[in-house]
Design goal:
alpha/beta, 15 strands, 42% helix, elongated
Amino acid sequence: MTDTAPRPTLEAVAARAGVSRATVSRVVNGGDGVREPLVERVRRAVEELGYVPNQAARSLVTRRHDAVAVVVAEPETRVFADPFFALQLRGISKELTAHDNQLVLLLTEGRDDHARVGRYLAGGHVDGALVFSLHLDDPLPGLIQRAGLPTVFGGRPGWSDGTTDVVYVDSDNRGGAREAVRHLVGLGRTRVAHITGPLDQTSAADRLDGYRDVMGEADPKLVVRGDFTPAGGERAMRELLDRCPDVDAVFAANDLTASGALRVLRERGRRAPEDVAVIGFDDMLPVAEQTDPPLTTVRQDIEEMGRLMARLLLTGPEPTGAGAVPARGAGAVPARGAGAVPAGVVLPTTLVRRASA
């Protein structure tokens, strides 16, 4: 065993800087009312001594924990297998790190997990929550509301509990789907099918609506339900070919679904795009550039969505970048630096053309 040096204290910093303990506390905790020369002396002393604030004591003073819960309403097997979540978490992590905040990741797989997450959020451990991949029957919104935490959601909320001040970040799922299907129609395809995502999620429902905006009263057999996974895309593509052997184009609800559909087309001896053109949604490069053939897809900036969610939670409204538009409605971010903001920010999508369509 080795002896460890005692941690520098506020008193030691105050003595080194030649100021009072109260002055050091105000500087360390971000308080106002300290003249700039004294602030510099305190910062210099902190650096020289290697002083690290006691987070528990600091939280008692500031009532802030510098930690944010990121709640993903999916089981861990899905989260760690789907690149979408990695990209969104990367955007969130970068923004939280830039503001010296810690990310606390919470996953839910069943009702017991919902109760556990609800207890944690109500326990005063974090300053706010970022929540995404919700399903329509998910109890998380109610649990979070009861916890009274500032919250930003990823994706358009689909519940109807009378709440009007929900803040969220989403992509233009419906508009992106319309662009994809119009492209397929423009190629001369007449039997354009859609493999959906799970329709208890608003992103999947919006993409189905975008498909219907273009196709109108298309043959209902051309719409097959998927689940945003490669296996779901394979199952749906087999069902679609059995139902409608003359299908000549497929708009898949995401890139993973499209990758599964392409595998089944090869198994059945159908060429893409010559026999069946395929378009996905997301433009996740580890998937879209490695399918055979490389996938034409609708690009949404997943990492930017995560970054913007964290930015809205931590600092309130800001310009959201070129093309970003507020969703209908108005609300307020109940967070540090809060102010009037749109209830939702919807980021634009673009069609990325590769070889599959």
